[in-house]
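Dear U.,

For the methods section draft, I wanted the exact inputs and outputs in one place so we can describe them consistently. I've listed the two proteins in the order they'll appear in the manuscript figures. Please don't edit the token lines directly; just add comments below if something needs changing.

First protein:
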Amino acid sequence: MTRTRRIREAKRAERLARDPSLDPRWFSQPTDDIAGAPRSVSPKRLLLTVSLIIVAGLSVGGYLLWQRVAAFNDAVSTSGSLSSSLLLALEGDERVNVAIFGYAGEPGHGGTYLADSINILSLDPATDTTTLIAIPRDLWVEGSPRMPANGKINEVFALGYAAGGINEAGIASAEVLSQVTGLQIDHWIALDFAGLRAAVDAVGGVTIDNPRAFAYTFNETSYHAGRWDAGEFAAGVIELDGAHALDYARTRYTSVSEESSDFARSARQQRVLSALRTKMGGGGAASLGPALAVMDALPGHFNTDVSAIDLLLLSGSLSPDARISLEQGVILEASSSDTGQYVLVVIGRSSGSDYAPLHAYLTAKLAEPIPTPIPTPTASAGT
């Protein structure tokens, strides 16, 4: 120790001789004991400090993110932000059926709260597959307490809204859907026109693979006159902003007969939703920005009875593995109501309120195995 001290003092004297401006206090005691003296930092301590900073940053960021998600949940859902009714259900053996309603929701629009589109997302946990069931809005409903005067199924949403707002609209429509399809509708989601438009714009537009070209109009008189004054969509891969994605999803007056039905509209709506899901990404940090952008665009236009956590679980099912359409001549046939309205009724019914044939049809279709898709390198996102 004495020899070490002599060597240290010699080095200090040498440094002071080279630079008299140095503070002599540096040479009166060991540098490790002088306040303000430079200290060496061990790699272990440096790593610990950096780790603590990262953990603190992630904790703060995670808290702020959760606050944002919770605020979104409170704005759009009747369920608590920390709840999940699907987490265990999607690990079970029974199907989970979620009704998705699209409606205008725009002041001055004819039929503001009529359901413009009705679909059932049927998830089968046993096979990890999803089937989309398109329900035509002209399907006639009789014998429902929700519709004592009878009517088309798209009217239920408007009647529910008039009785108790958007949540009652969703509850009433889900209840009637259960009656006519025989499926237990577990949950519902409702999105208005402005919400779809805003969500697509929030991610910078979507890419659709359109199977056939068609022109369109929203005016029935123009339709019968063959005037396509709203625009057209080319066949193949097309890019759509929010306004055109909405047009693509909802138009039913088209220049091609195959595109002028509720069934075709349902298929186009599914393409838009699938493309929107693709644009949001497959998860991870890269998906956070688009997901938050969509989340910010939806309040005021989107409502549901599932939590934000459950919406995340459902988001992966927006590209269904199979589709069921209730086609005319197969399970439905055209008819007229007492007031002369065009309606669709169930083939084989024993009375106006008999939906047993439709129940059996859907049970059989859902029991059919879903072919495993064969991936191709040319498959386009959003189809």
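Second protein (the one for the lower panel):
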Amino acid sequence: MQLSFFISKRLSQSKQTSFSKLIVRIATLAVAISVTVMLLSIGISRGYKEQVSQKLSEFQSHIVISNLDQNQSYQSLPIETNTDLEQFINPNNGFTHFQKYGIKAGIIKTNDDFQGIVLKGVDKQFDFNYLKKNLIAGKIPLFDSLKTSNEILISSSLALKLGFKLNSDVFVYFIQDPPRVRKFKVCGIFDTNLGELDDLFAIVDLKQIQKLNGWPTNYFTGYEVFINNFDSLAAKVDLLATVTPYTLGISPINEIYPELFNWLNMLDVNVLIILILMAAVAIINMVTALLILIVERSNMIGMLKSLGLNNKNIIKIFMNLASFIIFRGLLIGNLMALGIGFIQQYFGIIKLSEKDYYVSEVPVSFHLSDFVLINVSCFIICFILLLLPANIISKISPVKSIRFD
């Protein structure tokens, strides 16, 4: 065992009470709290982005394939069934599901009020699992391939605004030539807490949209495609581009709703600010602790110098001692972050307004890479910056320090 390491270990295990002991404990606590806040900030930010992205993707799909000529309105040109494309969208290529859809903009009118609406037509291939989880009344509509259904699935916010209940008649007017009106019956009410999307969309039979638009049964607005990993979204878009006809456009969810995803990306700026502030707290406390340790042990430094130990080895003693403090703080910080994170994840103690934040409780998602990055970065930065105060040791005179009391 090296002499410098042996001495620093004995100093760290010393039972003697002193002012430096209190400072070391404060420094350890500062490092622990800083690491805890850093890890929780990253975990909460990552968890929130994952949950909101997943929630929106489950409602709207990860990728939309539609006519390349369509404009930004809800009146788009149709596409035709593409068997080759449908066969390519399979689990072997990283896709979990696809479904056809059609849209038609209209106006819901009651005796007292009216509301713009976008009818989203789907067929029996549509995955209703997400809407089932968020169904608060009624049932999921059943669309068969032969009979055209007049059932409609609406959001709770729309039902509350216009006074609809289960089995209420809903009249939707369409501005076209000639103008048309359709009567639907409310079969179910859902609440996804996705704000404007809940107010905007209602689910109907795809055959209704095809009839309103005068489309054949093999024509529809587009395909909704789901993937097994949101992180591979860009790669899956590129993969689809290799088999999709040039007349069709491919739109990932982050391009369909850029404002929402830009807002989610802004969370990274907040996390970065927190990381910088917490790193500064840990560094300041560690530097303070090391300076106090050096001043308090100046007598010992003088004795070691007089016995022939050079500055480099004495600096190693105090850097090893600082490393013990940092390691202890990192360990405590990691345990605290894991404990708080798992308690929140499994018990949901801290709640959020789902109407404002899209989730009902603070989400936490820990990744091993985040722990490795934070711990390694904290240790390296603290260790390098502590070399500056440690160099004070080289200026301590053995004669003066031995006489220092």
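Candidate sentences for the figure legend, describing the second protein: The chain has a mean pLDDT of 86. The radius of gyration is 32 Å.

Thanks,
Y.
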